[in-house]
Specification:
The complex is a heterodimer. By secondary structure, chain A is of the alpha/beta class. Chain A contains 13 helices and twelve strands. In chain A, helix 12 packs antiparallel against helix 13 (about 320-330). The radius of gyration of chain A is 21 Å and the shape is elongated. Chain A starts with a helix and ends with a helix. The model of chain A has no long low-confidence stretch (mean pLDDT about 90). The radius of gyration of chain B is 24 Å and the shape is flat. Classes of the chains: A alpha/beta, B mainly alpha.
Chain lengths: ~325, ~280
């Protein structure tokens, strides 16, 4: 008991080192690149720490709305209603683009082809076995085993989910009618995993599982993922080129608030389940934070973009980059 | 006739004795099994850099958990500073003053109920109580949650040990004209001190292992914390994040983090038993 004051003193003294901190939370889709940027920017500007926690886009929007974090991150844009709740003025700043991919765990099968109808049927629980005729028809020459399909989806509010179900809603009327869009939806079947991390983990551990994650999670963990048939009827595996092609239309006609969907985009080389990912920032911030945010965002556009391809993300198209650069300067 | 009865009784005795011994062995075996498995999986990944470095960006190999170790010490330390005095004082009140009164009954009941509240609920409560008004995640919020978990444990433990202090000791002091509060503070408390301190240490080690109340309070941090009013990394939370991730390197680090957490708990438990053992008797 006598050491108590001493301990208290040590506790307080140890907290005396100060650096500016920006706290952000949200998207697990973009977590790998944000944590890389945080690390690299810290090397450029050692007195600033960007602490990004990947709690899922739903959580990111929530904490951003409650103003418990300095910035949020999501891969499904906030709805008008959500923006109203957050005070009406929210900037969606696109940072990079990425792809949702169907990852699967079927022993002996490395390559699979899917189309929108098949993915919707699997996630609706209508296709329940890997040897289903619909899958066999898409995959001639592939020996599909008699193995039950385990659907793995997100348990938390997620932009990865938003992109996935936004795509399914576009290609399947049945999906749009029964499940619809959202960062968290009422899944008809399947197991829930927390974050892209959790879904990757579950799919790896569950034979017969199929789930959806951002491309980088499959690349980093060497998981098998399927190609998806795009609007032009071509089967494509997710790639930086495919995502960039999908964004081409949106890049030409980017709305002012950047809230745009690029799933099921036209074009023979467009990967159909692509999306922008956004940082959520308030136009007005408390003293000091605004300037730090601006500094980081400028660096993100100038130097950060070059780090995206190594992590499987597509850098912003030049036109969008120029637009974002202007928006960044309005932040206070 | 008697011989047959005795033989049966002896057999029954041997059988039951063996059964209880086997169960006791299983109980101890589970603990040893867990310790052994964690030590085996974790030891291979322990290294100097693991203990002294910050985490690497997601998906990159290497890095350490130094910030989580320091963070856990800070958060649990502050929780102790907040929770132990409240717990001890209310325990003394219950045993010395409240006794069988209506208010004491309510306090005791509340403490028991609180002891059973899931720790995630305590975390949500701390989120509403500290994070929301302050508009920021903080080590302070995490410590508040852990302190709320510690209070009922320390309280009930303190009450039990204070009750064990012989009434004759109090009477002797009172007979010498010592005021009641002095009796409680300078006669009863020191006598029960070892037991109370043991309870406090055990409550600390329980709090150190909690993950759920920290997720939405301490929040986690990739870097060194910037004081008790900012987000902070803690061992169990980092372990949890690493364990549910798909990265093999993070799984490896999660085992090593588990080993450190277990070593810390074991150290506290052993310390509580060894240092605080009374010099002569084994009581208290």
């Amino acid at each position: 008991m006598k050491q108590l004051p001493l301990f208290a003193a040590v506790l307080l003294a140890a907290t005396a080192v100060r650096a500016e901190t920006l706290t952000g939370a949200g998207s697990t889709f973009a977590y790998p690149i944000y944590s890389k940027w945080s690390d690299e920017y810290h090397k450029v500007k050692p007195d600033l720490q960007i602490n990004y926690q990947s709690i899922g886009s739903g959580g990111g929007i929530r904490q951003f709305t409650e103003k418990t974090v300095d910035f949020g991150a999501t891969d499904g844009p906030m709805t008008d209603e959500q923006i109203q709740k957050a005070g009406g003025k929210v900037l969606h700043l696109p940072t990079v683009m990425g792809a949702d991919i169907p990852v699967f765990n079927v022993a002996g099968v490395d390559e699979l082809r899917f189309d929108g109808a098949a993915l919707a049927a699997i996630f609706l629980g209508k296709i329940t076995n890997w040897n289903d005729p619909a899958l066999a028809k898409l995959n001639p020459g592939v020996k599909l085993p008699d193995l039950a399909i385990t659907v793995v989806h997100r348990s938390d509010g997620s932009g990865t989910t938003y992109c996935w179900v936004d795509y399914l809603s576009k290609v399947s009327p049945a999906w749009e009618k029964t499940v619809g869009r959202g960062t968290s939806v009422n899944w008809p079947v399947g197991l829930g995993g927390k974050g892209n991390e959790g879904v990757s983990g579950l799919v790896q551990q569950t034979p017969g599982a199929v789930g959806y994650v951002e491309l980088i999670y499959a690349l980093q963990n060497k998981m098998s993922f399927g190609s998806v048939r795009n609007k032009s009827g071509k089967f494509l595996k997710a790639s930086i080129a495919g995502v960039t092609a999908a964004a081409a239309g949106a890049a030409r006609h980017m709305p002012k608030d950047y809230r745009v969907s690029i799933t099921d985009a036209p074009g023979p080389n467009s990967y159909p389940i692509s999306t922008f990912t956004w940082l959520l920032v308030y136009p007005r911030n408390t003293a000091g934070k605004g300037a730090e945010l601006k500094g980081f965002l400028r660096w993100m556009l100038k130097d950060g973009q070059a780090m995206a391809p190594a992590l499987g993300y597509a850098p912003l198209p030049a036109t969008v980059k120029a637009m974002v650069a202007k928006t960044i300067e309005t932040i206070q | 006739m008697n011989a047959a009865v005795y033989a049966r009784r002896r057999r029954a005795n041997a059988l039951m004795l063996a059964a209880t011994a086997a169960c006791a062995a299983v109980s101890a075996g589970v603990l040893l099994g867990i310790l052994g498995y964690i030590a085996w999986k974790g030891a291979a990944s322990l290294s100097w850099s693991f203990l002294t470095e910050l985490p690497k960006p997601v998906g990159e190999t290497g890095g350490g958990i130094a910030n989580s170790i320091v963070g856990s010490v800070k958060v649990v330390g502050l929780a102790g500073l907040m929770g132990v005095p409240v717990g001890v004082a209310s325990g003394v009140y219950l045993a010395e003053y409240g006794r069988a009164g209506r208010f004491a009954f309510c306090v005791r009941y509340a403490a028991d109920v609180m002891n059973g509240v899931p720790s995630i609920v305590i975390g949500l409560f701390a989120y509403a109580l500290v994070v929301m008004p302050m508009r920021r995640f903080s080590a302070l919020a995490g410590s508040t949650a852990l302190a709320l978990i510690m209070i009922p444990i320390v309280l009930r433990n303190t009450e039990e040990f204070v009750r064990l202090v012989p009434g004759t000791l109090r009477e002797a002091a009172l007979a010498l004209g010592v005021p009641r509060w002095k009796v409680a503070a300078f006669v009863v408390l020191p006598t029960a001190g070892r037991g109370i301190a043991t309870g406090a240490l055990l409550a600390l080690s329980r709090a150190a292992g909690e993950t759920a109340p920290l997720i939405f309070t301490a929040f986690g941090n990739r870097y060194w914390d910037q004081g008790m009013l900012g987000p902070i990394a803690t061992l169990p939370h980092t372990l949890y994040n690493y364990a549910i991730s798909p990265y093999a390197d993070w799984h490896r680090q999660a085992w090593a983090a588990a080993l450190i957490l277990m070593a810390f708990m074991l150290a506290v438990n052993v310390a509580a038993r060894v240092w605080l053992r009374p010099p002569s008797t084994g009581a208290l």
